[in-house]
Amino acid sequence: MNIQNVSVIGAGSMGHQIAMLSALAGFDTNIQDVNEEALKQARLKLNKIMDKWVAKDKISIEERDLAFKRLYFTTNLNEAVRHADIVIEAVIEKLDIKREVFQKLDKAAPAHAVLATNSSTIVSSLIADATERPDKVCNMHFFFPPLVMDCVEVVKGEHTSEETAGIAMEVCEKMNRTAVLLQKEISGFIANRILFAIQNEAMALYEGGYADYKDIDKITRKALSHPIGPFELMDLSGIDVGYYVMMQQYAETGDPKDKPSKTMTDKVEAGELGRKTGKGFYEYHSKV
Ligand SMILES: NC(=O)c1ccc[n+]([C@@H]2O[C@H](COP(=O)([O-])OP(=O)(O)OC[C@H]3O[C@@H](n4cnc5c(N)ncnc54)[C@H](O)[C@@H]3O)[C@@H](O)[C@H]2O)c1
Predict the structure, then answer these.
(1) What pLDDT is recorded for position 213?
(2) 144-151: long-range pairs with CB below 8 Å, 24+
(3) pTM exceeding 0.85
């Protein structure tokens, strides 16, 4: 299939940058969000990042301007996916909302379009049956922030056709991202399963009073050579994102160890979600 038109649903932390990757790759790209303000913020953030890329000679002024010409922002789902060859869904990590979105996408997108979810944990077999085209549904898991992180886990469920997985892999490669194909589904995929094991242990050590979160971050950076500690990373990716991921896993497994910790729940309830709100475990002066 000759992919020309990409749609991204959800303009939050992930969606706006996936859409930019797509536009930079030369695809006509629509980005849709139910929240007008999210689209406004997405545009502002992308302008800022692309200006920095130009200043650092990562792209030319012409490349930046052409990419923005290929990028359309809209709150209208039907308009966003009307000509899509592939749709990448990046809305909030809640299964019922994702299923609802996929149902709508199935009706609004052309019959040939691949429908992919960027979920951090939800395997696409939990979503595919909300559509009449399960063979065209798969996971395309980008990492935060997509404009920086060079990896995408493409996950093939039993329902996913070879052709669909191939299209998802090809789109990632055109977006200049290293794509890795997982032949079998598992909730959380590979990277996040390893990451959550680390974050859960860090949280248990903090809540157990063994060390302060700052010191746990320091040890992880200094002794394990991680570029960033587990609490710093939770702040960077959004504490609410991790919270919903765990809630989803808990709903799937019923295992109490998958339930978000008290600290995480308190932070989400207080609206202290990390860098994006100016405060998480740490305080931030610029809300980027
Ligand atoms: N943040 C991360 O580190 C990260 C990394 C990889 C994958 N993901 C996954 O990406 C997805 C999005 O995460 P995020 O961090 O960008 O979340 P976010 O909360 O920053 O953004 C979600 C966006 O979706 C919009 N939205 C909600 N319901 C919608 C609907 N029905 N239609 C259209 N838009 C809708 C919201 O207005 C919001 O702008 C989640 O599935 C998450 O698991 C997140």
Answers:
(1) 98
(2) 144/13, 144/14, 144/236, 144/237, 145/13, 145/17, 146/14, 146/17, 146/18, 146/20, 146/21, 146/177, 147/17, 147/20, 147/21, 147/49, 150/176, 150/177, 150/178, 151/177, 151/178, 151/179, 151/180, 151/191
(3) yes
